[in-house]
Write a sequence for this structure.
């Protein structure tokens, strides 16, 4: 007898055609698409409603053991969630490239810092702000995706059992962060691309709207970002009493200790990473203590926790990149303009994005109980 809910699910392969005993292709199985979805984006990837066994009954082949379907699904889950996080990053990168191209071509207004009217809009500080905001977040997201992809490899391939287990727990912790933070941020970046285009961004002919619509699904499928945040809080942070999350914080602290206060970008990263880590530590302590007695209030802070983890994780990646850029600049290897660009971009992320991480502590500690305070009729 199967347990109720998802724990009773089994996994089946249901082929389009059945196979005859001699191995040749047999009759069509009773499984059909019954309608195509009319989606707001990803039109090149059709989605349909499937009907199984409407007529004579569909034949499915059990994969593995009965009632283990959810367990098997989790085998592909980490890969799939990393893949969707990467999708958020990839669409954001394309949107950024389009925004930069447009900003260099579009002529409008007189730059506030002086110069000719008739200058391209990339000369306006507010347009620069949008572009650097996009660029810096994309570099943080990319670093986090690579780090978590490396954790996936380490969890599968390291020879030492304890090291493999440590990589697996870090992977499990960070997967919901990559999935949700990179798609929330990616979606916001595609919106900024439309803004950089001004009125033309609202016109279909530029194609900017397509990136926005395509990115919209990434925060929903493969588990909505709200569900990712709950996974992070409940299964990844609270369940082990915050142990893995604190290990992550210690890894970040180890990088902070290497940052040079004499290098402005590194000093800024150290300051804001330090504040972010302290706020995250306070959030984790409060959530681990509060969740068992008051899961409602704690869970309302899950999305803010995930955002903090994304900001601090992204800042950590840029700090590591900044250390390497400074090292190469000091020894004269690499391309100076590229390396200086890396440092300025990381510095900007620290000042304008990472600096917001501590502000997410209040929504967690103060906001949660309020979310649950209104009764249904008050909404
Ligand atoms: C284009 C497209 C392609 C898809 N492809 C696939 C596919 O290939 N394979 C597949 O299996 N599925 C696929 N899906 C399904 C997709 O994964 C689900 O739509 C998605 O996980 C959300 O589930 P739902 O639609 O039932 O929304 P619901 O679960 O009803 O969610 C509605 C809202 O409630 C929130 N919510 C629900 N439960 C909780 C909770 N416990 N705690 C906090 N908040 C909660 C959600 O975050 C969301 O904001 C696809 C969907 C789309 C639109």
């Amino acid at each position: 007898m199967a347990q109720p809910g998802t724990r009773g699910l089994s996994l089946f392969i249901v082929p389009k055609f059945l196979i005859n005993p001699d191995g040749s292709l047999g009759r069509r199985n009773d499984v059909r698409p019954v309608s195509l979805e009319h989606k707001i984006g990803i039109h090149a990837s059709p989605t349909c409603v499937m009907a199984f066994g409407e007529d004579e009954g569909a034949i499915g082949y059990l994969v593995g053991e009965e009632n283990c379907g959810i367990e098997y699904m989790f085998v592909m889950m980490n890969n799939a969630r990393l893949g969707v996080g990467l999708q958020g990053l990839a669409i954001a990168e394309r949107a950024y490239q389009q925004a930069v191209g447009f900003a260099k071509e579009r002529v409008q207004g007189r730059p506030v810092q002086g110069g000719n009217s008739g200058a391209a809009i990339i000369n306006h500080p507010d347009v620069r702000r949008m572009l650097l905001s996009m660029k810096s977040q994309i570099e943080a997201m990319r670093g986090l995706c690579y780090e978590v992809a490396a954790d996936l490899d380490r969890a599968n391939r390291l020879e030492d059992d304890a090291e493999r287990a440590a990589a697996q727990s870090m992977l499990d912790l960070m997967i919901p962060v990559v999935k949700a933070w990179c798609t929330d941020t990616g979606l916001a970046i595609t919106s900024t691309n439309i803004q950089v285009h001004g009125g033309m961004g609202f016109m279909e002919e530029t194609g900017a709207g397509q990136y926005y619509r395509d990115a919209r699904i990434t925060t929903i499928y493969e588990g909505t970002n709200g569900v990712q945040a709950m996974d992070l809080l409940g299964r990844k942070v609270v369940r082990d009493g915050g142990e893995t999350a604190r290990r992550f914080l210690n890894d970040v602290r180890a990088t902070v200790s290497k940052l040079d206060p004499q290098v402005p970008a590194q000093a800024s990263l150290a300051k804001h990473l330090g504040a972010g880590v302290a706020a995250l530590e306070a959030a984790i302590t409060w959530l681990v203590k509060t969740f068992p007695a008051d899961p409602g209030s704690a869970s309302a802070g899950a999305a803010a926790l995930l955002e903090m983890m994304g900001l601090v994780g992204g800042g950590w990646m840029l700090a590591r990149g900044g250390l390497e850029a400074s090292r190469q600049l000091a020894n004269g290897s690499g391309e100076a303009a590229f390396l200086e660009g890396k440092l300025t971009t990381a510095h900007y992320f620290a000042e304008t994005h990472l600096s917001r991480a501590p502000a997410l502590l209040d929504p967690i500690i103060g906001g949660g109980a309020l979310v649950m305070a209104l009764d249904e009729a008050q909404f």
The mean pLDDT is 96.
